[in-house]
Design a protein that fits this description.
Layout: H1 10-19, H2 33-41, H3 44-59, H4 66-96, E1 101-104, E2 107-110, E3 121-124, E4 133-145, H5 147-150, E5 156-157, E6 163-164, E7 169-181, H6 187-192, H7 204-234, H8 239-250, H9 256-275, E8 278-280, H10 284-291, E9 294-297, E10 304-315, H11 321-332, H12 340-348, E11 360-368, E12 373-379, E13 385-391, H13 393-396, H14 403-412, E14 416-423, E15 454-466, H15 470-479, E16 483-487, H16 492-501, E17 511-512, H17 520-529, E18 532-534, H18 538-550, E19 555-559, H19 565-570, E20 573-577, H20 582-587, E21 590-592, H21 600-638, H22 646-665, H23 677-706, H24 712-735, H25 741-759, H26 761-767, H27 775-801
Parallel strand pairs: 9-16, 9-19, 16-18, 17-18, 19-20, 20-21
Antiparallel strand pairs: 1-2, 1-3, 3-7, 4-5, 4-6, 4-7, 8-21, 10-15, 11-12, 12-13, 13-14, 14-15
């Protein structure tokens, strides 16, 4: 729109900047580098490991403190990956951020939101978000949705002098407002200052890991205290040796790498998706979309491209084609910010411009998704007034009208049909610049109030452009057992025809939302049984999403228009196209900046990679924790020296958990995400850890009975280390399934590395590992083999008795 006011001068802007009256909103999507470093370094487990590392530095030798350097390296990797993810998020956020149009010194320019100052004159058009609080100065059919702030879904009519709040968005009409509160003083900023920051919000994966860490802490504290007292009593003649073995018992109880790898996996997911022009506004959204089992799609902008073409205009009741062309030309030029339909009409029927044959616009009725039509009134070249409506035929015509039969036939061909109708009594209320919010749903039957008296003039037939990648994407979801529901405000038959062209199962039986039951239970059944839903109002979209969630589904909603905002907000995961309105981008967790629906499988794939691989490596970390706690308990009960030094467990953890887990956590994984993460991980890790702990301690006791003399403890430790390594490798081999060439190579490489340590003299000395004789080493191998058979049996038994 053309703003009447001149706006602020550059001098006034500079003065306000000097006073700090700038829209310095809290940062979104990204925390500072200092916050990232602090979050990765200042953790409970890093503090514990750091204290133990300092103790080892005091008592020596240095090789028993290797675990400290591993923690430093792992934490460094986590910081680097999160900083890379921050940079990716920040760069993509700049691409996708709102750039409101601001009037200054008589010129309208797009500015970043943080350059708006108090008193700026800001233009509004459909789909745009109010980025600051203000007072309306101009309004032309302006309707604002404040549901994100107040919860009230009905649009609010705004006239000059009315207040607008940041966070609301325009659903119809145009206007302008003067900024009265900016930055942290704005209403939405006060509500969302904390929530809009980069946060690792709750998710099943992170919540599950937090619960696991809580359980582990409860186990660690008594085990560690008992181990400390035990080793001081057993090794009372050598305090340094007692301290080293006490540290060796505590360190492996800490699954510090599990938290680290989760953060790294999420961060790398953000980076990978960023390369595909996908902005993940909340990290767990990657995980959430992987858990989705129902995807609700809006047809326009998702299955079809934004553009349309006029296929034909069919005059009705003998209307003159030349006259209709002039009406359509005038109508197409009536809206300065036309939707896709009006753009297609304007392209097919360009306005002649000013002159004696020009039609003068006298009033408009903006399109509303609730009304399903728009209107315009003109003074024709001879001065004759005329008013016209353009919209859904089944809304503008009474039920049973003969024209609707032809409309249904065209709809079944997948064409979009609009009715151009003469408004005999002029535009309905709101056509003089005071828009009404459109028809309201009746509480009894959900039908709209009677529409204005109209005389049909022509059917405008539009061809919709299917997205070339939509069919393949729908097929992907079908293969992954994800149900697809198409929810559109367009005619149900037309939407069904479009979906049928894309081979969507169930598209042949579209459902008209106006005929759906109001009862929540019946509505849920109807939604479960249907695939394509047409004539859905914004409020009904929200109800459909809620009905699916009430049935236990995890629902993703895609959309790009303001009529999708309520459903996007309520869905478990909201996905918005990059060309969508600012309102939809504000509430969506994922924004497809390249407008490619085909990017969704990549997001699902990243989520499944993160969830599946973290669950895979969690088995390794928790198995280690279980056998470490069990070994500590057994040592306390038997009152013997702890069988390992820190260097032994550092070596074992690196080769059987740390290095393999890093590769496994970042590997491709297309397994569908399943619920009950904690239960599923513990049911495997606990029996594996118990078998490993008992078998290792058995070897240790056998070795204590066999060896004697000065080097007995070192020989006993070496034998126990061999058994534990073989068992841990067996667990790794189980977790790495199904095998691929690189996974087989990874397991083999870890085994070869351990053999190198055993065969290299200086590494033997460095790690204090030397197998003595043949009886005990082969006994250690035999015990490990028996434990391996038990591991396989336990793995299969648990999988069979407790299916996921």
């Amino acid at each position: 729109m053309t703003l009447a006011g001149e706006g602020l001068t550059e001098a006034e802007v500079a003065e306000r900047v000097e006073r700090g009256e700038v829209n310095d909103v809290p940062p979104r999507n990204s925390r500072s580098a200092a916050d990232i470093v602090r979050a990765n370094v200042l953790t409970r487990f890093n503090a514990l490991i750091g204290v133990l590392f300092l103790i080892i530095l005091v008592v020596g030798p240095l090789q028993d403190g290797l675990f400290g350097f591993v923690i430093v390296a792992n934490t460094g990797i986590g910081i680097i990956q999160e900083l890379r993810a921050k940079r990716t998020l920040d760069n993509l956020a700049v691409i996708g951020e709102a750039r409101p149009r601001v009037r200054r010194e008589g010129r309208t320019t797009e500015l970043p939101t943080d350059r708006i100052v108090l008193g700026d004159l800001i233009a509004l058009r459909p789909g745009e978000k109010c980025v600051v609080d203000g007072e309306v100065t101009e309004a032309d059919g302006l309707e604002v949705d404040e549901s994100l702030l107040t919860g009230e879904s009905d649009p609010v009519v705004k006239r000059p002098g009315d207040a607008v709040l940041s966070g609301s968005f325009v659903v119809a009409g145009t206007g302008a407002f003067t900024a009265t509160r900016v930055g942290r003083q704005a209403y939405a900023a006060q509500l969302a200052e904390e929530a809009s920051r980069f946060t690792l919000v709750r998710s099943e994966l992170r919540g599950g890991i937090s619960r696991l860490l809580k359980y582990i802490t409860w186990m660690m504290v008594p085990a560690a205290l008992g181990l400390i007292l035990s080793q001081l009593v057993v090794e009372h003649n050598d305090v340094h040796e007692a301290v080293r073995r006490m540290v060796a018992g505590i360190v492996p109880m800490v699954p510090e790498g599990l938290v680290l790898l989760t953060s790294v996996a999420f961060a790398i997911g953000v980076i990978r998706l960023g390369r595909r022009q996908c902005l993940v506004q909340e990290l767990p959204a990657i995980e959430g979309l992987a858990r989705v089992d129902v995807v609700c799609l809006d047809k326009t902008g998702t299955l079809t491209e934004g553009g349309m073409d006029v296929a034909e205009v069919r005059p009705l009741d003998g209307a003159d084609e030349a006259y209709l062309a002039r009406v359509l030309a005038a109508f197409g030029a009536s809206d300065p910010h036309p939707n896709a339909s009006l753009r297609a009409i304007g392209a097919a029927y360009p306005a002649p411009g000013d002159g004696p044959d020009a039609w003068r616009l006298t009033a408009t009725l903006p399109f509303s998704s609730a009304r399903k039509y728009s209107g315009a009134a003109f003074a024709e070249p001879d001065g004759t007034p005329s008013a016209w409506l353009l919209g859904a035929p089944d809304v503008l015509l009474t039920a049973g009208h003969p024209v609707l039969a032809e409309v249904d036939r065209l709809d079944r061909e997948g064409l979009r049909v609009l009715l151009l109708a003469h408004a005999a009594d002029g535009l309905p209320p709101g056509g003089d610049g005071r828009p009404d919010p459109g028809p309201r749903a009746d509480a009894d039957d959900g039908r709209a109030d009677p529409e204005p008296a109209t005389r049909p003039a022509a059917l405008v037939v539009l061809e919709q452009r299917l997205r070339p990648d939509a069919g393949d994407t729908l097929a992907y979801f079908a293969e992954q057992d994800v149900d697809t529901k198409v929810i559109s405000g367009d005619n149900a038959v037309s939407v069904g025809a479009v979906a049928a062209k894309l081979r969507l199962p169930g598209a042949q039986h579209p459902v008209d939302a106006r005929e759906m039951p109001a009862d929540r239970t019946c509505l849920a059944r109807a939604v479960e049984g249907g695939t394509v839903f047409g004539r859905v109002t914004p409020q009904q979209k929200r109800q459909l999403v809620g009905a699916l969630q009430a049935e236990g589904h995890t629902v993703a909603m895609t959309g790009d228009g303001v009529n999708d905002v309520l459903a996007l907000k309520d869905a478990d995961i909201g996905v918005c196209m990059g060309s969508g309105s600012e309102a939809t981008k504000a509430v969506a967790q994922i924004v497809l900046l390249n407008d490619s629906f085909a990017t969704l499988p990549s997001v699902v794939g990243e989520g499944r990679r993160v969830i599946g691989n973290i669950e895979r490596v969690a088995h390794l970390f928790l198995t280690k924790t279980v056998y470490s706690v069990l070994l500590a308990v057994l040592v306390i009960c038997w009152q013997v020296p702890y069988p390992f030094l820190p260097r032994h467990l550092t070596l074992l953890s690196s080769l059987t958990i740390g290095i393999p887990a890093f590769f496994l956590a970042l590997a491709p994984n297309r397994e569908r995400a399943r619920p009950h993460f904690v239960r599923r991980v513990l049911r495997y890790a606990v029996p594996c850890g118990l078998i490993a702990g008992v078998a290792t301690f058995a070897t240790y006791l056998l070795a204590r009975h066999h060896y004697s003399g000065a080097g007995a403890l070192a020989a006993e430790t070496s034998a126990a280390t061999l058994t534990l390594f073989l068992i841990a490798m067996w667990v790794l081999a189980i977790v790495a399934r199904p095998y691929t060439w690189w996974r087989v190579g990874l397991v083999a490489a870890m085994g070869a590395a351990f053999l190198v340590v055993l065969a290299t003299p200086w590494l033997q000395r460095f790690f204090a590992l030397k197998l003595v004789g043949a009886v005990v080493p082969w006994t250690a191998v035999g015990v490990a083999a028996v434990a391996g058979v038990l591991l396989e049996a336990a793995w299969r038994l648990v999988a069979r008795r407790l299916p996921a």
